[in-house]
Write the structure tokens for this entry.
Amino acid sequence: MRKKISTLARLGCALFAMIPVAFAQKPDCSLVPGWTQQGEARSFVADTLFEYMDGNAEGYLIYRFVKMDGVNCQSGEDTIVFDISEFADAESAYGMFSANRDPRQPLTQIGTAGQIVPRRAIFVKDKYYVEIGISRDGADVLKAFCTAIEKKLPGSTQIPEKIGWFPTEKLVPDSTRLIPESVLGLRLLRRGYVAEYEYGKAFLVTEDSPEAAAGVMAKLRARFGEVKPAKVADEAFEVADKYLGRLCFFRKGQYLAGYAGVAEGMDPVALSAALAARIP
Amino acid sequence: MRTGLSRRNFLTSLAQTPKLEYGTLGRTGLKVTKVGFGCMITSDPSVIARAIDMGINYFDTARVYSRGNNERMVGSAIKGKRDKLVLSSKVQSRTKEAALADLDTSLRELGTDYLDIWFLHNYRDPAEIKDELIEAQDIAKKQGKIRFSGISTHANQAAIIRAAIEKKFDVVLTSYNFAMDKGLEPSLDAAHKAGIGVVAMKVMAGGSRFQGFYPTDEALRNKMAREGTMLAALKWVLKNPSVDTAIPSMVDTDQLEENIRAMSSKYTDADEKLLAARLEEIRPLYCRMCGKCEGQCRLGLPVADVLRFLTYAEGYGQFTVGREYYQELPAAYAEARCDSCPGCTVNCPNGVRVAQRMRRAQEIFA
């Protein structure tokens, strides 16, 4: 009997502990003094997102969008639009952030990464992506909301590990993005990261297994036709393509990676070897 | 190592270059390929560069796509080729000043002095088409920043097209696909007769409200591509003479190569069969939320809502979300059981097996 009560108590505690987490994922105007909710809260999932942002919903869906909760807040004449989107996983949410930040503006340390410009703020934390827009220039208000909601969102603030695998020399700062489908415009490279360099771009795709990755390499060779074998990691080749420029593809275990659009004077094979050395 | 195309690739590309067909966008006189290019989710600028070389001459983006990053990507891809292309972008802002400011940003990001078409983006209620936005388009025309005005719509399209005719827009951009009912076609014809350019989007029945028609499951999507269902869907749109061009969203080179073939191959009985089969596959399962079942259930159940929750769970793998919504229903609805009913009174005009689907929802959510 005691065991049963103890089990029930643990279950009760667990359920109680889940309550703030569930509420914490919703935007809340009262997080910043002086702001109150205007109108009803809104909520959308994948097949209703168009009701809120028809014409832009696909940009969310492609990153494995799950749901969005939003409110409008008001303080005097000023209004803000405050939305929190949940994605299937932290990598997808980071991907959404990386596609939507302005690469010419600096990032702000909020959650995993954030960006605040005079009229809008975006940040990502774990699988949550937060967007706040304001009707006037108001970086201070945006920062206050971001800081407050960031504390309430559960999960990790770690940047996806694979981003750290790209060499940093001549890397365009904060340029690494998750491409949700068809890296380099090639359907064979299903989903992965692209990092911009001063002399080209590096890419990294994860396959399910080394065998699957080897299968994709074989298809890439066939697709590009006349390729030149190279010695990088498990297998590699280099090729020139009218649209993708000077390329090197290599495979290391389950990873497919390399460089594309490499400028004259740089060696795509040597660059790829340096990238391969950083992949565990 | 040589650069550029190898001889083999060059010969292959020559052999694969499809025949191009053109449409004229109403009174604008703009001559565009029947298959244009929706850039919204394009993964790499090389896909756009390749499309230009293949002969596609109409490209569409919007200020809101990836918060402006998409316009910048398109701008980089069309650099040096702008004059050969028809380029459109869209503005979501709902005041004159904000819209004109957005236009300047669009031009800067796209690296061009003018847009061929500037769409007011995403309208579903004609009352939302404010005079000040039309004035913004007129000002932009006079300044030489745009050549033609447009409006885009994804819902309540017939009403927006009617408004576009009344308000003398030059071009209308509307979702249009095989999964929609026939009610839109007279509106497309009317726009065409009025000299308005008609551009179709969401032609694969993909994206948002018809997500179920364009499955996110990669294996099924690949199967549809192999069978030619996607190509058939595009050809279905292009066979309507009132549609001047279609702009499917193109992610990658493979999709580009597939879509461009729609211009050189006719819509056939085989295509009709493929689309009919696809409609049959989804008909019993996917609620289109037309609302025609409202009030039909003798127990008073909100049928469309429950079927939508089931779609979250089974269509998109979001069981938790579906259950959460179901459990927010009033207790009398959440606890009701179709098995207790002598017979279902709900008739779905789209062929959804309502009773079966309702039982399924009650089984997994309640």
